[in-house]
Amino acid sequence: MKIPLFKLRRPWYSYLSVIKMIFVCDKCHFLFSRASQPEQCPDCGKYAVRPANEAERREYEEHLKEFQEAEHG
Ligand SMILES: [Zn+2]
Fold first, then answer.
1. What is the per-residue pLDDT for 66?
2. Which pLDDT score, from 0 to 100, does residue 72 have?
3. Which CATH class is domain 12-72?
């Protein structure tokens, strides 16, 4: 099937696949990073995953830092 040229422009979400996004589960507050938003929470399996807000992203980064410091120490 031939695709017209104007349809070959990268869709906006293709850029998100390069950058890992941070998501949070509304049910169990599990924070995790993924290239794309999953339907189910990887921790509790509930369909309550949404993109993390600014505060939650910072919380996630803090956890990562703690984890990395623990690994090195
Ligand atoms: Zn969950």
1. 87
2. 72
3. mainly beta
